[in-house]
Specification:
304 residues, 8-stranded mixed beta sheet, globular
Length: 304
């Protein structure tokens, strides 16, 4: 496969024969994950419960939660565990949402301090019910972590805030070190995979975040939903055009049979090829592997 004559795009090398591709009903061996449950894992889980905190690791059933908790890291999920949208790829519950927790910012900051984090990642459910989409809660958490007086870098992974300029500015004015917003998939699949989102709007959010000086911008993609290589190349070009610095690419794994089905399991060598292509299209740093997720080794990517 190749992406044609598009400038900066490399020739895509031949991947393993179709007979080498795994059946859609079973996961290939390179998707085995570390089992959860060692002492450090249990300590991190207990600390989160004690401070009434949620993590995307648990709510989204992330395959890396055993590794991350056992290494003393977690990605904080603010604004409650329930989402106002119902994307077909996501394991987070959609339904009744609660009022924002007034103590959440301080509790997150306290957990960051107790865990000794050097790079804190904050994400949220989508809260279309709130006038600012939850932007003020993001800003409050950032300020609370800064108030620790520790040398902690802060990465936020935000929803699209329905494109509200004032909401995006609220988060940017709090000065996170990394502003992440995932496009998730190619535009053709939005209607089937995330019908309440808009690809063009997500690009506008990222472009706005890229405008402040020294603001690192980041986005993430899932593969295996039925996208083509040509479509991925175009997404790489689009992300570069709006100033995205960092990109993560990982294998889509359906949380249940009721979720959008996986169409293809990419071979690890294909992830290497995708990373090479994305860099050739202008993305500065690309983490691409089957189990890579938006916040996976996020501090390492930032420091690299």
């Amino acid at each position: 496969m190749s992406c044609g004559a598009r400038k900066g795009c490399l020739e895509f090398k031949q991947m393993p024969d179709k007979k080498d591709q795994p059946k859609s009903v079973s996961r290939p061996p390179w998707l085995r994950v570390r089992a959860a449950g060692d002492k450090r894992y249990l300590e991190v889980r207990a600390l989160l419960r004690e401070h009434n905190l949620h993590t995307v690791c648990q709510e989204a059933n992330c395959p890396n939660r055993g590794e991350c908790f056992s290494s003393g890291t977690a990605t904080f999920l603010i604004l409650g565990p329930n989402c106002t949208r119902n994307c077909r790829f996501c394991n987070i519950t959609s339904g009744h949402v609660s009022r924002p927790d007034g103590n959440e910012a301080e509790n997150v900051a306290r957990a960051v301090d107790l865990l000794g984090l050097k790079h804190a990642v904050i994400t949220s459910v989508t809260r279309d019910d709130l006038p600012d989409g939850g932007a003020g809660q993001f800003a409050g958490v950032i300020r609370a972590i800064r108030a620790l007086g520790k040398n902690v870098t802060i990465e936020v992974l935000t929803p699209d805030f329905k494109g509200r300029t004032d909401s995006i500015e609220t988060v940017l004015e709090a000065r996170p070190d990394v502003f992440n917003h995932n496009v998730e998939t190619v535009p053709r699949l939005y209607g089937a995979v995330r019908p309440e989102a808009d690809y063009g709007l997500s690009l506008r959010v990222l472009k706005m975040a890229a405008e402040p000086e020294k603001m690192v911008t980041k986005s993430g993609l899932m593969v295996g939903l039925g996208e083509t290589f040509e479509e991925l190349c175009q997404v790489f070009a689009d992300l570069n055009s709006v100033g995205v610095d960092f990109l993560t690419i990982g294998q889509y794994l359906p949380p249940s049979r009721e979720h959008y089905p996986v169409v293809k399991y990419y071979h690890p060598s294909e992830f290497d090829e995708l990373a090479e292509q994305a860099r050739a299209m202008g993305i500065r740093s690309v983490f691409s592997a089957p189990l890579v997720r938006s916040s996976y080794h996020a501090g390492e990517q930032y420091n690299s």
